[in-house]
């Protein structure tokens, strides 16, 4: 089954995963839609690319060096004239508020002798500030660990693992790992319950572009640890060549180990997504989308490891020496590659919750006043979902991830409409505090 995720946050006072992208034999030159408006990307030293500086608009709007954030595509798109990252130079990213993935389109050759890093952040330690770890662009946050007053939380994303305990103290539960290219690993708590590990999602074509999910936090009173965040996602495409002698990394974040023989540890985030499209790809560099390690101890209270992500290489001529880790899926490039979602691409969107409108570009923040929806009281609330080009026998799953406590998963019911335009509803239990709501569509085989 394949899925989509679009999340929003609420306070009390999106992307579809499609079937495998198939490739066709070339009939001519490769066509990549870059106008070069963001100039040549040639960093002379280590650089942090601030994605929040991207202008909002259609992806094909001319850039000015900072890219364009397209909410419909959920991507920050750069249209470079060429890309050259020298040896010894590392490119990292500061997330856009939407945490959208990165697309680099280049008119000319792409040379990566240095490092492009979209790694997810590690989870917090038991004596650190409790919070959700930050993913690489296009990835999802890792769950927080428990403290003396509140429980921890599940990992976010389509492969986010469940959280184990609603009790803030006296409860030992290890966090499980997130899934992506494979299921995540379950935590082992020395007899106490661990939450379910995250499921696999996505496809070998890495279309649409999506990153890794976050690992679950651990339940250990005031000594809970946070789950690692998911690795990010990047598409690099050119009608010319890609020379990779450096690294492109989209690894999931790990969770801290150590601190005592009876401690309980959190789960690792899953690896993200990497897709390369070019006429010719060569080099002895590496592509990495590894899962983060769960925290480990010596008393059987170990967090689960995050799963690997997904890597795709599409080209007419492949001369890469390394096979990637995990091994990449190899395809012959289409003359006009499918890079962006089209109108007929399946899509689902949360429209309203409890009668309150959900923004078309939700941000799923977990802090006031930046919530997407605010409801006046706890209790049952009806979620209205719109779907387009989604089979009516699909399974729509709604997952509610609370800032503290056990997450909830319910099935949406078909309410009416056609394959082209349908509506669905789900009844969810809204708890006090902050939550995110994620909707996933599973297609029948």
Domain count, please report it. Answer: 2
Query: Biggest sheet, open or closed, and with what strands and sense?
Result: 12 strands, mixed
Count of beta strands? 29
Residue share in β-strands: 25-35%
* Form type: globular
Radius of gyration over all CA atoms, rounded = 21 Å
SSE order, as H and E?
EEEEEEEEEEEEEEEEEEEEEEEEEEEEE
Number of helices: 0
**What structural class results from the helix and strand content?**
mainly beta
Amino-to-carboxy terminus distance: 6 Å
**How confident overall, as mean pLDDT?**
89
Low-confidence stretches: 1-6, 10-27
> Which range best describes the helical content: under 10%, 10-25%, 25-40%, 40-55%, 55-70% or over 70%?
under 10%
Description:
This protein is mostly beta strands. The protein folds into two domains: 6-16 and 344-442, Immunoglobulin-like; 20-340, no CATH class. 0% of the residues lie in helices and 33% in strands. Strands 2, 4, 5, 6, 7, 9, 10, 13, 14, 16, 19 and 20 form a twelve-stranded mixed beta sheet that branches. It has a five-stranded mixed beta sheet with strand order 23-1-29-25-26, with no helix packed on it. A hairpin with a 4-residue loop joins strand 5 and strand 6. It is globular and about 60 Å long. Residues 1-6 and 10-27 have low confidence and may be disordered.
